[in-house]
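Let's practice the habit of predicting before peeking. Look at the sequence and jot down your guess about where helices and strands might fall. Then scroll down.
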Amino acid sequence: MARDFPSFKSGAQLSKQSITIWRIVQTAVWLAGAAILFCLVFFPSLGIVLFWNILIPVAPVLLVVFAGVWRNVCPLATNALLPRHINISKRKRLSTTQIAKFNLVAVAFLYLIVPLRHAFFNTNGLASAVLIMSMVLVSLVCGFFFEWKSAWCSGLCPVHPVEKLYGSKTMLAVPNAHCSECRNCVIPCPDSTPGMHPLTAAKTIYNKISGYLMAGGFPGFVWGWFHVPDHKGLNSIGQLSEIYALPFFGALVTLILFSGFKKIFTKKDEVTIISIFAATAVACYYWYRIPSLFGFGMYDNDGTLFNLKNTIPQWAIYLSMISSAIFFFWWIVFRPSNKNSWIVRPDYATEKVNNKGAIK
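Done guessing? Here is the structure:
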């Protein structure tokens, strides 16, 4: 079993006090997630606001700046890794090809589910709760059968492809609050590989497809998604095609552009190209999401947190949109890389390691 790519730092073990602090934070975030789920079922209007209009809008900037923090405290990760922590996981290992297939399924799930927000999830608390509970169940099953983060956190989780796209220049590498030792469950490990991006592990056709779909297609997908209004359910095939048409069209356009740039420029320019497309995707998200949060969106009341249309001048919204775009392009494209991984790799497992990096 070969060792993984080298990380910026390795062999960092948490003290008992640090573990306790992280467990408290993980529990608090998990309870907050459970409270949101409760609200989605019993107080759907509040639950929709808390989940879709507060938590989700904060998530992209968190992934850009502190991807490792999110990886440590994500409630679904806590669910997925619970069987491993309490020693009931079967700890089966996935091959590199199997993980690549899981990654492709995660991207497909992301592309299929996000447009359905316009049909169901943005306006129906119970539907959103069912979606979340389905992911809770899948994450638990993954954790029960497979080793550490291989099946869910670095496999089937639909947020993971976005983490790889947005998190290439994280601010700092935080200690690993889940893995007590490195078992090389994923190669390369997304947590401890500096500069991780969607094409880092493009060794199989599945990696390449998922990588191209995220790095190339996601900016256009985000643009198209914001040009579709919310519906309360689906009443016709026409509505179903409407919610998918523009996101998929946008994804196709930027995917073609990305492929063209990849052919024009050399391999050494790949990271820069991916960074530009990643910055475009997250900047596009906030370009449309900031106005809609405060009542200045394209569609009245869609995704509104506070309607300030008659309270603040529109130029203030434009200023925030431009400022956020500048920030993300600076952070992802122009800011020098600090060579940080998302998380500091823990010590390797106690099995004997030979001088070629293989664990016996």
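How did you do? Residues 16-344 form one domain.
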